[in-house]
């Protein structure tokens, strides 16, 4: 079972986190299951960018980026070359290291 390492985030994971996640589970589901309250304003259907993460390690092991996800990522705050929507990115066999962006653009919340 692959391991997810979450780098420290001031609100969502002040001390960081390390946990196992089943293969084929979305990153968002794995974060939520492990008490990291990742925003997901669209209900995890890939229609917003609130669950944006930066994959520091293991990016190439994830499922392919779809056109819809790519379009939504353009709206994400702090977009990086290895950014993904955590609701669309599914775990493979490789361990991941994630950075949770400090801010998110959640128009429903703001």
Automatic annotation (TrEMBL):
Keyword list, A-Z: 2Fe-2S, Iron, Iron-sulfur, Metal-binding
Spans through the membrane: none
Pfam family, one: Fer2
Cofactor annotation: [2Fe-2S] cluster
InterPro entries for this protein: 2Fe-2S_ferredoxin-like_sf, 2Fe-2S_ferredoxin-type, Adrenodoxin-like, Beta-grasp_dom_sf, Fdx_isc
UniProt KW DNA repair keyword: no
CDD domains linked to this entry: fer2 (cd00207)
UniProt keyword Membrane present: no
Domain 2Fe-2S ferredoxin-type: 2-104
Alphabetical list of NCBIfam families matching this protein: fdx_isc
The family this protein is said to belong to: Belongs to the adrenodoxin/putidaredoxin family.
Protein name as catalogued: 2Fe-2S ferredoxin
């Amino acid at each position: 079972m692959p391991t997810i390492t979450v780098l420290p985030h001031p609100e969502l994971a002040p001390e960081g986190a390390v946990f196992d996640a089943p293969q084929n589970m979305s990153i968002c589901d794995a974060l939520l299951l492990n008490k990291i309250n990742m925003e997901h304003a669209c209900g995890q259907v890939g229609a917003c960018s609130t669950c944006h993460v930066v994959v520091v390690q293991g990016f190439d092991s994830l499922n392919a980026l779809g056109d819809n996800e790519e379009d939504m990522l353009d709206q994400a705050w702090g977009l990086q070359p290895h950014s993904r929507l955590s609701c669309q990115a599914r775990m493979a066999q490789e361990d991941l290291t994630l950075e949770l962006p400090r801010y998110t653009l959640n128009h429903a919340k703001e």
